[in-house]
């Protein structure tokens, strides 16, 4: 007999998206260009994420930019939110495009048309009683801040971000209670371009620039926590981590130590600063050995200590297995955070290893460490979907993936973990962050759009749509 899991009353079931991956309308409503608007789809994008030099210009003669039109959520949000409501969503995690609110990022006054757009979105969610969970910065920063200031290496971005965050809190204080500051903040360690807005030029200064940029984001995040609590009395502000439990390839102590080290640097360093309010002891040696000398202003450390986040949100797609000295044949392909192949796991078509127990491990480790509520704000299977002749999309592979991960959450809750909710990634098909393409799909709702930008944009319910609706209606009891 199948085991029945008990999710808490009020558990926030829903889905997650990011502005730059679905809105489109990249030059409408007074929006400025963002870094996401100049990143093309396909191999070029993967190379840029891996650290290739890039000139931050749009080159339409050579490349396709599927996010310029996205899935046109900007014009179709009512239709899409109605579909979310039909599935019974309790929560919708979305992001605000910074470049809609401050087109260049450094203006003194916001763009009213941009603010209005999100007013409409929040009102529409409210109509169905769907709680918005809003990411303030999700892989999208005004391009001007990249070109004129060099991205987050530059301390001036702290005050631009603070102004932007305060503008949002003032404007939406009666509409939004849950906020996340920076999407996958620790992702910057592997692909700084998306969230810090620069490609480190040389290996020698790579970590220096990344951690200086992160320090600025930590300070900006604490300032946002402070402002949110001052402006919105019942606000809850979370950090957002990309979490991949790190396994040792074998029991060789050198490899076990290496895994522990990688786990700390990748999964915990950012969380420790944002949740515990201080740099962990292990950071000191890591910085010393890697030539990182942070410029920390007077008052920064007090600020971090005083304004930690209220809860921890994270994305979980896969675990990661590491070996101190791997051979090239052992390396995984496709997995953007690296590692060696785990012989016990199957991988998605993009090389992301599928590991539901890893989610239970993640939840337990994070809760043991921080003792604050957790929220899984991204999880899902990127897959190629096929539309059958009768129009149906039978994505049983997606249902299987999600079911096993929901069970893992159910187990973690029994383990004693405090879990606020689950918003699976890409609840409606959207542009992939790593490939910049449409064909890597996560949705319960299919969108007719192809990698070359063609397609009618028509929405269709996949088999998983009906399955997830049932999961939500039984509060996870029937999977
Ligand atoms: C996370 C990002 C999302 C997202 C997701 C899936 O890293 O926060 O923006 O897209 O991963 O990744 P991808 O689109 O590359 O499959």
Automatic annotation (TrEMBL):
Belongs to the glycosyl hydrolase 1 family. GO terms for cellular component: cytosol. GO terms for biological process: carbohydrate catabolic process. Its EC number is 3.2.1.86. It is an enzyme of class 3 (hydrolase). GO terms for molecular function: 6-phospho-beta-glucosidase activity. The active site is at 378 (nucleophile). PROSITE patterns: GLYCOSYL_HYDROL_F1_1, GLYCOSYL_HYDROL_F1_2. InterPro entries: GH, GH_1_N_CS, Glyco_hydro_1, Glyco_hydro_1_AS. It comes from Geobacillus zalihae. The keyword Nucleotidyltransferase does not apply. Keywords: Glycosidase, Hydrolase. This is 6-phospho-beta-glucosidase. It holds the Pfam family Glyco_hydro_1.
């Amino acid at each position: 007999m199948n085991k029945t899991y008990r999710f808490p009353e009020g558990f926030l079931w829903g889905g997650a998206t990011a502005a730059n991956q679905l809105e489109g309308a990249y030059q409408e409503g007074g929006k400025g260009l963002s870094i996401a608007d100049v990143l093309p789809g396909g191999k070029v994008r993967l190379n840029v994420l891996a650290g290739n030099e890039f000139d931050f210009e749009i080159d339409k003669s050579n490349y396709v930019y599927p996010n310029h039109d996205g899935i046109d959520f900007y014009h179709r949000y009512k239709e899409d939110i109605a579909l979310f409501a039909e599935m019974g969503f309790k929560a919708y995690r979305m992001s605000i495009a910074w470049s809609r609110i401050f087109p260049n990022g450094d203006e003194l006054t916001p763009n009213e048309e941009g603010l209005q757009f999100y007013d409409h979105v929040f009102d529409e969610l409210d109509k169905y009683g769907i709680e918005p969970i809003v990411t303030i910065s999700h892989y999208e920063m005004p391009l001007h801040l990249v070109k004129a200031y060099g991205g987050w290496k530059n301390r001036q971005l702290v005050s631009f971000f603070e102004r932007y965050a305060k503008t949002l809190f003032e404007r939406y204080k009666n509409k939004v209670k849950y906020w996340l500051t920076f999407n996958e903040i620790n992702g910057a360690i592997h692909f700084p371009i998306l969230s810090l807005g620069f490609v480190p030029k040389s290996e020698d200064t790579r970590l220096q620039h990344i951690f200086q940029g992160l320090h600025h984001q930590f300070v900006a995040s604490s300032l946002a926590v402070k402002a949110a609590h001052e402006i919105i009395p019942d606000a809850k502000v979370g950090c957002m981590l990309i979490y991949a439990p790190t396994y040792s390839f074998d029991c060789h102590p050198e490899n076990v130590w290496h895994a522990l080290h990688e786990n700390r640097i990748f999964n915990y360093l950012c969380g420790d600063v944002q949740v515990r309010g201080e740099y962990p002891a292990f950071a000191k040696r890591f910085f010393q050995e890697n030539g990182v000398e942070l410029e920390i202003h007077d008052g920064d450390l007090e600020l971090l200590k005083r304004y930690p986040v209220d809860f921890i949100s994270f994305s979980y797609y896969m675990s990661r297995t590491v070996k101190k000295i791997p051979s090239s044949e052992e390396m995984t392909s496709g997995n953007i955070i690296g590692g060696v192949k785990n012989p016990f796991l199957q991988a998605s078509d993009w090389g992301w290893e599928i590991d539901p127990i890893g989610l239970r491990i993640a939840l337990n480790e994070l809760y043991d460490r921080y003792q604050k509520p957790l929220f899984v704000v991204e999880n899902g299977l990127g897959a190629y979907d096929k539309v059958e002749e009768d129009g149906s999309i039978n994505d049983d592979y997606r249902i299987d993936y999600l079911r096993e991960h929901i069970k893992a959450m159910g187990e973690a809750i029994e383990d004693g973990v405090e879990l606020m909710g689950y918003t699976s990634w890409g609840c409606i098909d959207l542009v992939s962050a790593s490939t910049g393409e449409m064909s890597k799909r996560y949705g319960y709702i299919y969108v007719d759009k192809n990698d070359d930008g063609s397609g009618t944009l028509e929405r269709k319910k996949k088999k998983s749509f009906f399955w997830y609706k049932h999961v939500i209606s039984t509060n996870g009891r029937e999977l």
